[in-house]
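Progress narrative, Year 2. Work on Sensor histidine kinase from Paenibacillus agricola advanced from sequence curation to structure prediction during this period.
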Amino acid sequence: MIDINRLSFRNKLKIAFLVVTILSILITGGFSYVITANILENNAMKLTQDTVEKSAEIVDEKLNKLMLVMMTLMISNPFKGMLKDVAAGNNSQYFTHMTNLDNVFSQARMTEPLIHSIFVSTPMGEFYPLSMNRNRQSSFFESPLYERILREQKNVWVEGHEDKLFLGNNRVVSLILEPISEDYVKDVYIVVNIREEGLRRLVGLESNGGSSRFLLNGAAEPVGLETDPLVKQVVNSGQMEAFIQKGPKGYASYELGNETYLLNYARLGITDWTIMSVQSKDHVLQDLIYVKWMIVFITIGAFIVTVLVSGGFTRYLLKPLHGIQEVMKRVEGNDLTARFESRNKDELAQVGFRFNRTLEQIVVLIEEVKLAETNKRVAEIKALSAQMDPHFLYNTLNTIYWKLKLKQVDQSQKMVVSLSRLFQLGLNKGNEITTLDKELQHVRQYLELQTYCYEHLFEYDIQVRQPWLLGLPIPRIMLQPLVENSILHGFSSMETGGRISMEIDGDTDMEQWTIRVQDNGVGMDEATVRSLRWQEQGHGYAISNLVSRLQLYYGDKADMTIESVLGQGVIVTISIPLKGEHPDVQP
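Result:
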């Protein structure tokens, strides 16, 4: 095994070239393979879903047409005449009605070729096409069809079965109807037998390429006789009912044994039957075999090319480093006149040039460190000052949503305008300093939004003692944290009666101006007040952050005091120095 620590930097760089190149190709290839697989899978799912939904529409249209044909049959004169005699108990015209209805049955079967046979059971007798051979050994009233219509008491679709009413044992799907009549006629039922094979063709059954399409009833049982082993496995897995109950249509991945299948389904509109389609995921993704081999070949090719070119690259890249080594050796021999020379301008050359200026620039480097620390502190405070409490935004949007649901459009519009204005004033075009006027507008928008979110919880009052104070500069988002603490912490145990007072006053003699925020909330004990300046209390802006910002912008000339008695509210006072902003104050 190679000890990496004993290798030269040149060899390490070669290995790094190889590792980075191969890893990049493998990662890119892996992501490409996953993305391509997902795209192919999604496209296959969507394409199959469109086909399944189209099949559902076709089947619905065909079954609706079948219902229309039967409605036409039931309002025909021969049928109505037969019902009239049945209601009157007149059985003398049975054979006449049989002949007349035979023509109607023939017309219905010609109109809809999907119909195999029609059977009408009445107290007068049975009616059916004269061309059909009735199975005299089977009584309708002793058949499962009669049990279904009695149990469900409505128009019933019966799944595929052998037709016992007529000879031939043909497999059919049956529709059992009660007649349409102005007067109720008892014990009259119409059975329409549909060719099961014709319905299977209508569904668009496929059994090639690892995919199958079939029809299930509301209990996730096959509507027709299924011979496909894949369909049998899927149905017998007992998981189809869960997919059917998810909704009228959809698609998902489905694990069966050790193989993954893509399942699509769409429910019919006329009945609770659902068209299902299942296809092998491996079949869908078989084209990705080409992608796999391409990744392998590209990786091998990249490895060979990297080995060939890495030697020249390492020699070129390490040339400045060798020069720096020679200079350092001379410096170790107390030759402080040694200097690094190079025509390159890359990072290694810059290291050599900076080594030349090390002794001369110690003080400059110290100042740069201080500046870097200051910039870092400014960046941190900017990041802290730009935070927005996600709970406030969530509560505001949630309130707007419910007010819209309650048709309170005017209030919702005002909240949206206030929220937009709040962000606009808070961002302040990227400037950290704003005016007191804009800052007060910002806190008003925030308080207005909170009054909508916490209705009747509190009221507020803002007073500016001298108009010229409105033009004073102030760091942005200084006031919102104070009123936010009052609402979230001071009024946390209150339902109404809260009050927030904000007073801004200026003292030209003392060359300072003050912001005083007071609430009548639960207050704090002395220990909490002492720790508040150094710890974050809950969510949102921390008082310690405000203190840090005041010190950054005003130094020791600004101050903040907190007064509170438990159960009597909190008073926060911020003192900010005047810097010649007022005409009566000298800079």
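The first strand starts at residue 115 and ends at 121. The CA atoms of residues 3 and 184 lie 97 Å apart.
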